[in-house]
Every structure is written in C-alpha cells, then in structure tokens.
Amino acid sequence: MKLNGHLLTPSDIGDVNRSRVIQAFCDHGPLTRAELARMAGVTRATIGNIVSGLIDDGLIAEGPAREPNGQVGKPGRPLWFGPRAGLAGAVTIAPGSVEAALVNARGELLERADRTVGTDADGKAIVKAVASALREACGNSRKSLLGIGIAVPGVCDTDSGEVLGSGPVPGLVGAPLVATVERGFRARVLVDNDSRALALGEKWFGAGRGRSSFASVQTGHGIGVGLVLGGAVVRGATGSAGEAGHTTVVLDGERCRCGRRGCWETIASLGWLRKEGTRRKIRGASTMDAASLADRAGGGDDPAAQLMHSYADNIAVGLANLTQMLSPPFYIVHGDAVGGGEVFRALIEERTRARVMSHMRPTVHVAFSELDQRAALLGAAGLVLSETFQLTAT
Amino acid sequence: MKLNGHLLTPSDIGDVNRSRVIQAFCDHGPLTRAELARMAGVTRATIGNIVSGLIDDGLIAEGPAREPNGQVGKPGRPLWFGPRAGLAGAVTIAPGSVEAALVNARGELLERADRTVGTDADGKAIVKAVASALREACGNSRKSLLGIGIAVPGVCDTDSGEVLGSGPVPGLVGAPLVATVERGFRARVLVDNDSRALALGEKWFGAGRGRSSFASVQTGHGIGVGLVLGGAVVRGATGSAGEAGHTTVVLDGERCRCGRRGCWETIASLGWLRKEGTRRKIRGASTMDAASLADRAGGGDDPAAQLMHSYADNIAVGLANLTQMLSPPFYIVHGDAVGGGEVFRALIEERTRARVMSHMRPTVHVAFSELDQRAALLGAAGLVLSETFQLTAT
DNA sequence: GGGGATTTGTAGTATCTACCTACGAAACCG
DNA sequence: CGGTTTCGTAGGTAGATACTACAAATCCCC
After folding, report:
1. CA-to-CA distance for B126 and B117, rounded, in angstroms?
2. Closest Cβ opposite residue B250 in set A250, A260, A390
C-alpha cells in the first residue's frame, strides 16, 4: 500500500526540471540559456543553475558562439548535447536478424552491427547474437551508457523485462534476454514491444517531438500501434497495449492468424493486399506492396488505383476507430504504407476523416515517418531516454 | 513555444504532495499521520507539515482519538475530510431534466435539486434551469465552493468550456453554459462529457479509487467510454475521446444513428436489444432491458437466455477491442447492463476474455458500478476535484 | 501500582531548489 | 566613443522535505 508513487522531495524538482530541459534540447535542437529561459518562463539565472548541473554531468556542452547575425546585444552561447552525450545501446530483434547500435542523444547512430540468426533460433542463440552485436557496437563505450534498449516484435512487460509472447520470433518467449545483457554490460536494460519503441523513436527524434499525444502505426505484414498520451507511452497491463491489429472491425469476418475473426489485420495488412490483388486478378499481386501499387496507380492502371483506394480505406478503418476512442490529433505511419508516398498518405488521411464523426475531422492528421530504416533503433534508444529522463506530466 | 508546461518550483512540490495526501484520503478513508507516513515512505514529521497546511485550509480535520484496540503505543488521531470540506457543485444535464447537488469531499450528496425542461429546450432555457437548480442546491455554500462541475451528454472541450455537439440535448451546443454559471456563482466552472465524468466519479468515490488505469463504460441507449490512464482521464483533441460507441466493429454493418455503418452501438445498445428481441419474436421485446432479460433468463426462458448471451457477447466485442488496444486492467460498467446483475456481469467478463488474445485474458476484470444513480453527480464533483488537486503522474 | 516498551506527534536544524536583484561582458547603433 | 540591448553570473531570500531528538499516550508484565 503506497501513496501514489511516493511524495516529491526538493531534490526531485531538480531532476524533473533537468529532464524537461533535456527534452527541450531534443525537441528544438541547440538553444541558448536565454532562449530556454524565455520558453520556460523563468529567469536566465534559474536556467543557468539547471544547465550547469547538466554540463557537470557531461550531457550538455557549450557550442561555439553564434556568429553575429545583425541582432543587437551580446550573442548567446548555444548549448546542446555533445557528440558522445547521452549514449544508449539500441537493439532490434526481427525474424532471422539482430541489429545493434550505439546512439547518442542527438539521435545519431555512431556505430552499428548486425547478426543473422536462424528464423527458428532458440532463445539462447538469439541472446547470444544480441550480446555479440552489442559488444561490437557499444563495447568501447560500455562505461558511459545510460542504458540499453531492446525492441522486440511481440508482447513484453517492460517492468519485469519478460517477453510474454512473440509470433514472429517464438524463441524469445521466456528467454533470459534482459538478465543476460544486464549481467554482461552492467547497464540498465529495457525491453519493449517494437511498435511502442517506434513511437518513442518518433517522440524523441522524429515527428513526435514536442507533441504530448500522438499515435504511431506500424503497417505491413502485421499492424501495431504505439500510443503516446500526455507525454508517456501507454503500455497497459503486462505491456499488452497496442495490439490494434487484432481489434475486431469485421464481426464474423475472415479468420485471422491469431485465431480470431475479422481483426483489422485481416483487411489492412500486406497479406490482405496480396490476396485481394490476386482475387481482382491484378498482375504480380503476390509480391505487391504499397510502393509498387502506388507506382502502377500513378501510371494510369485503374484496377491498381482502385485497389490502392481500398487499401487506404481499410487502413483508415482502424485509424478512425482510434480517433473515435482516443482522438490523438496526430498519426505517424511506419512500414509498408510509407512506400506509397504522398498520394497514399493523403488518401489515408482523407479516408480516415471520412470515417470519423464530423466534428473531429479537422483534428485528424496523418504523417509518414521520416526516420526510415533507423526508426526501430532510434526507438530502442528512445526507450532508454524515456526511462532515464522521466517526465512527470503537468 | 513553451517548455513542457513550465518548470517545477519549490512551492509546486507542496501543492503536489498535498494533492497526493488528499487522494490518499479519498482512496482509503480516515488515516493517521503515522499511517500516511508509512504509506508514503517518509517520516511522520514531513506528513505533519503537509497536513498542517490542509488543516489550516479547513479541508482536513482531526477526528476523535480512536478507541484503544489492544495495540500498544500511543493511539493515532485519525484525520479526514470535515463534513463541509471540499465542497463542489455538481450538475448533470439529460434530455428533459437538469439535476444539481452539493457534494463534499467524502462523496456525500448534501443537497439536491432538479428541474424539468422541455426535451426540445433551447440553450437559454437549459442554462436558466441549471442556474436555478444550482442556487437551490449550493446557494448557501456559494463562498466555499472549490468549483462547479457539469456533466453533459455530448462532445465538449473542457479547456474552452464549449459544448461542441450533443445528440441528446441539441440545445446545448454553443450555449453560454460555463460563462453564465461562472458569472452567477463566481466559481470555477468545468464542463465535461458525461461518460468521462462517470469515470472521474469512480476514480474519486467508486471502484476506481487507488487504480491508476481503468475504463468506465456507459451502456444503454448509447455507449460511451471514459478512460483513466496513469491517473488522468483521456480527453483527446477538443475533448472528443471516448466515442467508443461509434467505433466500427461490423464493416458495412447496419446504419447507425450517427450516419455511419456498423458502429459498436448498432450491436450493443438497448436499441439493438429490443430490435433483435422483436426479430426473435420474444414477448415484450420493445420495452425490454438487461434487468428484465436477466429475470426471464433466470426463470428458465431459453430464448431470453440466448438473447442475453448475445447481448453480453456484443458488449464484449467493444471491451475486447479496448483491451487489445489499451489493455486497461479494469472495466467499470454503468447504465443498463448493471440491471442484469451478477450473472450478466460474469457473462460479459467471460465473453470479453474469450475475445482477447490468450495472454491478456487474466488481466480482464469487469465490475458493475456501485454508485447507482448518484454516479453522474459524483462524477461532476470528481471533475472539480481532479482539476483542483491535479496530480502529476510519477 | 509502577517501570519498561512501543507508538505517536512535534520541535529545531540541515539541505536542496528556484526566485529576485544587481552587475560585468559582448555585441550593435549613431 | 558613449548609449542601448542582450547575455550570463553571483549573492541573498523563501519554500519545502529530511533528519534527529524529545514529550506524550497507551499497553504489557512484574
């Protein structure tokens, strides 16, 4: 029986304020003390005290004075993360492969390493590959890591560090992933679902910067959602939130690979696209994706254009449901759909707006992620940053 | 451009800690300083300082010393809200009627008043009825109100105080509700959607006490959801979150009153129940509800039992979708379904578990609200408490 | 009946933090 | 070169909890 997460102590307010300043650096890039003070509505002296702590820790460094730009007054000294500040180890695990990286607080990937494993690899083999790739990417920086983040395709409980279920990489379930890496690197190790990691990547390094609420949507073979509400990612009981791909949108619809019927995935995944393309007798449907579909639709292929419309509309069904339920004002789409380009993005946005109640239409905005293939690794690093610099919402 | 909601100041930590202590009193009832200190993991001296501020404000009072109960040591003095502490005005607006009450921090309804208005009343008439009912319920306590909370059926933006849309009470849209009441009572006035208000009522005075995340589900003619995640209610952009009744669960299903197709409401509302009952040729279907259905099913009426099963299963479709998406560990059901009693509750819980992925089944718990007809008014009061005692999540 | 043990609530001091005011430093302008 | 503007910093003040020590109230046991 605890009182909501203990009480605040005077030194907590320092931690919180330092965290907020750090987030401001992530959101806005280099800033002078005076700029920070104006943003926060406090005096320059206060900001000076706060950043002096960060400078002592080596997280923040003074850049060279900005060249005079015609503005009167003493020019400010820009502050930002040093190139080796806020180092985090980042790992992504996918069927058949493991990737690791060393990421700094600027969101730069300083080192990368990957390993291939058998698609039917057991937990031991995967953990070994993770440790090996991490050693290659982060070995020299082991001492200065804030932590190591691991993004896993499947359900996992970040608090306990357990992987509870993973369709794509069954060997991971129950594997001593966190414990082993923690022992080997003597660093804090955090594991999370890959869709949520993508959301955290966007929050720290992408289009989610400065937004307190948004949804990140992974498309492709499966659909997963990472929700950020009030600045924090929603994990749910035992980390099982975000299985949006397996929400029912067609009661008594097609059988889904999860065993249930009419899941969103059954009408909005690559699997559906290819099957539907085949049914509509479109050439090359069995290897089709959003990119090739958009190409052909743009080239005047009418059946392709119609199929693209259906694909966007089916994706919009789930986005609309999310909007009705939670009304996050912003969607960041990852994965296959991004290949469809601006035309496809606009189509998804338009169809989503059409599918929500009229008064919330103006609030719907759909963007495609610009983090490309770095997204997953940045997400794993974001996991570490979010845990290290915990922000108490106002 | 602001730094996330300003920085924390030393005096903020007092506010936060006082708020947390207040929430502890709501969650656990009367507590001594020593009990609070143990819960919070701080010394008794610290708690003594915190509560002394609350005692000075008149919010908390020392009760009579507990009678010695065989435990050694000096007996503690229980502290709790005084009977006239934390007074809030509470208003609920429904088609044809307005209800107001004076509620204290204990969750007791000290005064009540109601007014009837025409179902086609315009904004002016409704606002007048609200003011009149409030004067009767809270007139004498006007000076000591923390604020006034108003629960409205429809979409409303709590920040701006605007009612943006209301199917049941169209006259409210755009009415100067908040401004008028604020002027008349010189108190802070907060308006929110009724489903979210129910959630806040449960959070402060019901089964939501002490839970950081849960979902409150209103059943009956329409379906609305109030989500509490991390201690805060989810409002979404312009307050439009919670329209779960209008999420698509049957693609291309029946036309819904909202104009779209296959909304959850089309298969899980009283309207569906009565139509389906008629279709199945069940006597008295046109006025049937969960209570009468459960009665007849319990009396051995097989068609009724089957219909009840379908009703529960259809409600479970939406709860399962919520679970897949957000995995709140706890559902508190209000409205018509509560009439179905324990049998119906167990049925909904069982069907929801059957409809979610296997690993999250143990996390699903469905409860019926025990706040009965007070729920809405307590929710309106909870709105005031939540705004007054803002809690920063850990 | 009385001493010891246990628990409760309250002083007083130390520590942490942001706030406020004032000041030197560095640029622009005329 | 002086005036103006802006930037960063130093010193004192105020608010809050942490810690230690102490008086008070009850039970237990001899």
Report:
1. 7
2. A250
B220-272 pLDDT, tens digit each: 999 999 999 988 999 998 899 999 999 999 999 999 999 999 999 999 999 99
Chain A, window 80-109: residues with a beta carbon less than 8 angstroms from a chain B beta carbon: none
CB B357 within 8 A of CB A258: yes
What SS3 class is residue B29? coil
pLDDT of B319 reads 98
* Count of residues making up chain B: 394
Scanning A318-377 for CB atoms below 8 A from B yields: 320-322, 324-329, 355, 357, 359-360, 363
What residues in chain A have per-residue pLDDT under 50? Answer: 1-2, 393-394
Shortest Cα–Cα distance, B36 to chain A (Å): 8
Which of A121, A120, A123 lies closest to A179 in space, CA to CA? A123
Supply the pLDDT for residue B1.
Answer: 40
A181-239, pLDDT tens digit by residue? 999 999 999 999 999 999 999 999 999 999 999 999 999 999 999 999 988 999 998 89
Strand D nucleotides, any atom under 7 Å to a protein CB: 3-11, 14-21, 24-28
Tell me, what's the pLDDT at B68? Answer: 65
CA dist., res. A210 & res. A329, Å (int): 13
**Amino acid occupying residue A126:** I
Across all residues in chain B, what is the average pLDDT?
92
Report percent pLDDT > 70 for chain B.
96
Q: What Å value separates CA B37 and C1' D18?
A: 13
Closest to A188 (Cα-Cα) out of A390, A388, A357, A6: A388
| Chain B hits for A322, Cβ within 8 Å | 325
Helix or strand holding residue B241 (H, E) = none
The 10s digit of each residue's pLDDT in B196-224 is 999 999 999 999 999 999 999 999 999 99
- pLDDT top residue among B97 and B76: B97
How many Å separate Cα A49 from the centre of its chain? 32
Distances, alpha carbon B32 to alpha carbons B29, B36, B63, B74, B77, in Å: 10, 6, 9, 12, 5
Which amino acid, residue A159?
D
pLDDT at A344: 98
pLDDT at residue number B391: 62
The pair of three-digit structure tokens given for residue A128, joined into one six-digit string: 């070994």
Closest residue, CA to C1' of D25: B74
Amino acid B387: pLDDT: 92
Task: Search chain A and give the residue with CA nearest B7.
Answer: A17
Q: Is the CB of A68 under 7 A from strand C?
A: yes
pTM of the model: 0.93
